[in-house]
């Protein structure tokens, strides 16, 4: 149904104050995820960009660590019939990001390791829950 054809690094940003990170082992970490997609119906090619950003904050509200990793995946949709909007939304917001997330993790772990700090391992992201939560928020905005 969905075939990953190509994956590449789109954008990377990384800032680290190594001494502060090393001396503050209990950084409060926050992260954010953005997903953007484009679908070419004629070619049946889906492009999905998964962007994960995060920052670590000390107890004194110093931000010694922040990062942004953006990965683009090109997918071939192998179906005889065209997908409806809801099915395409599920593929582009859940299935494709699930396939791309390990590539993001690998880059974040590599960056933090190369910076001389403990490799940062982000927790598993449940893209189905994230999708449902964002839909609930959007529905509440429309109603209000």
Note down, in words, how this protein is organized.
The longest helix has 30 residues, at about 85-115. By secondary structure, the chain is an alpha+beta fold. Strand 2 and strand 3 (about 45-55) form a beta hairpin. The protein has a single domain, classed as SecB-like (Bacterial Protein-export protein SecB, Roll), CATH 3.10.420. A four-stranded antiparallel sheet has the order 1-4-3-2. It is elongated. Helices cover about 35% and strands about 40% of the residues.
Q: What is CATH's topology name?
A: Bacterial Protein-export protein SecB
Strand content range: 35-45%
Main sheet: strand order:
1-4-3-2
Q: Spans of 5+ residues with little confidence (pLDDT < 50)?
A: none
Please identify the oligomeric state: single chain
Number of strands: 4
Q: Structural class, please?
A: alpha+beta
Figure out the total of helices: 3
In helices, the fraction of residues equals: 25-40%
CA-based gyration radius? 18 Å
Corresponding CATH architecture: Roll
The H-level CATH homologous superfamily, spelled out, is: SecB-like
Shape: elongated
SSE ordering: EHEEEHH
Give the total of domains: 1
What is the top-level CATH class?
Alpha Beta
On the 0 to 100 scale, the average pLDDT is 90
Q: How far is the N terminus from the C terminus?
A: 38 Å
Largest sheet: 4 strands, antiparallel
């Amino acid at each position: 149904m969905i075939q990953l054809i190509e994956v590449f690094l789109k954008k990377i940003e990384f800032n680290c104050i190594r001494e502060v990170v090393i001396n503050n082992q209990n950084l409060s970490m926050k992260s954010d995820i953005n997903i953007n997609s484009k679908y070419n119906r004629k070619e049946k090619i889906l492009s999905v960009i998964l962007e994960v950003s995060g920052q670590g904050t000390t107890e004194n509200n110093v931000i010694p660590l922040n990062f942004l990793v953006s990965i683009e995946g090109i997918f071939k949709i192998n179906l005889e019939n065209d997908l409806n909007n809801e099915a395409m939304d599920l593929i582009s917001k859940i299935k494709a990001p699930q396939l791309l997330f390990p590539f993001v993790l690998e880059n974040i772990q590599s960056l933090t390791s190369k910076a001389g700090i403990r490799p940062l391992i982000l927790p598993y992201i449940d893209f189905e829950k994230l999708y449902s939560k964002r839909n609930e928020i959007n529905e509440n905005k429309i109603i209000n």
